[in-house]
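User: Hey, my collaborator sent me this sequence without any context and asked if I could get a structure. I don't really work with proteins. Can you help?
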Amino acid sequence: MKTELGLRAEHAAPIVALLDGDLPSRLPSAEPVRAEAVDPIQRARAFAEPLLADHRLDTGEPALEHADGVAAILAGVGAAPSMRAASYLVYAGDYLNKPEEIVAKAFGDSDASLVSHTRRLVQIQRAAREAKVEEQRRQEQTELVRKMLLAFSRDLRVVLLRLASRLQTLRWFAASKTACPRELAAESLQVFAPLANRLGIWQIKWELEDLSFRFLEPEHYHQLAKGLHEKRVEREQSVEAVRSSLEQSLQAQGLQAEVQGRPKHLYSIWKKMRGKGLSLERVFDLRALRVIVPEVADCYAVLARLHEWYRPVDGEFDDYIARPKPNGYQSLHTVVIAADGRPMEVQIRTRAMHEHAEHGVAAHWAYKEAGTKGYAGVTAAGEFEEQVAQARKAVLRQLLAWERDFIAESGPAFDDRIYVFTPQANVVELCANATAVDFAYALHTDLGHRCRGGKVDGQMVPLNTPLKSGQTVEIVALREGGGPSLDWLNPELGYLQSARSKAKVRAWFNAQAQAQTIAKGRELVEKLLQREGKTAIKLEDLAGRLGFRNADALFEVVGKDEYSLRNIETLLRPPVQDPDDDALLAQRHTRGPATDGRAPKGGVLVVGVDSLLTSLARCCRPAPPDVITGYVTRGKGVAIHRSDCANLREMARGAPERVIAVAWGEPAIDKGGKAPQYPVDLVVEAVDRPGLLRDVLELFAKDKLSVIAVNQQSGKGKPARSDLSRMNFTVEVSDAQRLNQTLAALTQVSGVRSARRR
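Assistant: No problem. I've predicted the 3D structure and written it out in structure-token form, which is a compact way to encode the shape of the chain:
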């Protein structure tokens, strides 16, 4: 079969010789010619023709015809010959045993890489399109595929090849009058057309939109086409006639103006009608002209001439030069009635304004897709769109200016993300260098805990193997039970890259530690109840009587040695008064409150009682000038509590007669003039980080506080607080009011969430 390029398949013989017999034996042979002397497009087509001639793509298209169409589309947008040649090699790769290796030998590593990446992306998109998922999930999949088109490959030629391939496929469905699958048309409209728009490839963009519109909304498409009363060619001819006449008239007036024009495309018309609720008669920019002049003054001169020669439409004039749009767009917009009696939109701008509108920071696509008024219900996609906008100008110029030996060396703008697939073809977005364990945790926390192995593209790999975009990942997991390994948290082993995965693993170990602490506390409490003969008491009731929200909360503080079992004993044992206690209480009631009693030097004044043994309670650590209350113990004198102490409230509820009034006595100054020191407990909670304890201790030293005990715990065993560190300090002070300044300063330390007395 002779091709339109004038090259027969037998010219591929010298290429076959390079492959050491790797190609199918049916390839013909001929007299050798020098491969270097053959045009790259001819070489590639000759290589692919015997492989593609008798095959069809999964869409039903003849494979060779599709490759020819892709090459023609690429030529139309100015792609280099090397990229047009690659359109044949990509499809030929489907019929080779080792496509990358063979293409590398015959055409070089650059084309081999392009073939590999493009073929893989085709497989990924096909799998995503065929995935059976609910509508909301399908929309998420569409957005991920959209990102993947730019993030998947380091060679941006892949993107342009995919755009051209999709356009050729839609053209084939239209020309052959074959029903186009809705999934394919929807993907073309939602993914490929916006991408072409972002890259500034307008020729591909508008045709993708019109063809997708034709397949997705056939009734609206045909109604709109009929309503326009003329074919596209006729509309283009009418625009050209007005364009040429206006350009000649302006030049005759001494205005150096370049006039460009094209008819509005069907999908653009329909989108504006639907989004703004307009009838076809109210869409004034079915035909549009653009006038480009050297200076700003020329813009207004052209506007004056237009309104002089044509009748302007009321309310359809906008001066974006005097009042630019927020994105910096500048132009004059007006609608006039042309000589044929139909409306014509005209945009007038300088060359600099035109360059900004066409190649600036995504001004054009941001307006068209999101719309300053939000018409068509389309919204921008946040950070992804901003990255594309920033890179758009440079990427577009590189993409359409590939030279013969140009190879992309820089990566895409999305090196921090990868996109992989589940066996069901759902797209999963992960951080760069993520592993199978990260993948498992991204799907479900429980699956991550049970993960024991991973398959990548059907092959078992070590769990710390970095994944790459486009791979299909399957998790091998325990049916039930199990848990993560501590090795996963070792950064040197590389099992986890995602901060979210690491947090889930830490939360699991914290939960295990909490469970062990609760079990320890439960055991201690239950043994105490057995000793006291109170096993009939319900544990939840006991916790409630002690002021805890539930039994586990009580067991946790008991297991951490933060709550003394003596408090439970006090609650359980009946108030049996010792003889000394009876005498003390009788003395208190008979003497009444003292009016002139003095406390022992350096002690605590018990109102109405002289020289009575007192001790400071360890549960609340009172210190002057705290408001205090006394509680008469059994044989150990009076325990001094802070008046707001929870333990005191509980004991007073069972034996209110033991509560007595107390006050601080005069401080006992030693020979060195130093006031007595009182131990006080402080609790500091902060985000765990290196150097945290050091920074807190340095603050204590700065405030001249003596630290006599420290206890630090990373996390509290609760997943929601797995990143917190709880530090308990015992410091000595002569005056508790000094702590207010210290506690305020502690909250200013980096990472500290709270600081308080216990």
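In plain terms: The longest helix spans residues 499-532. You can pass these tokens on to your collaborator as they are.
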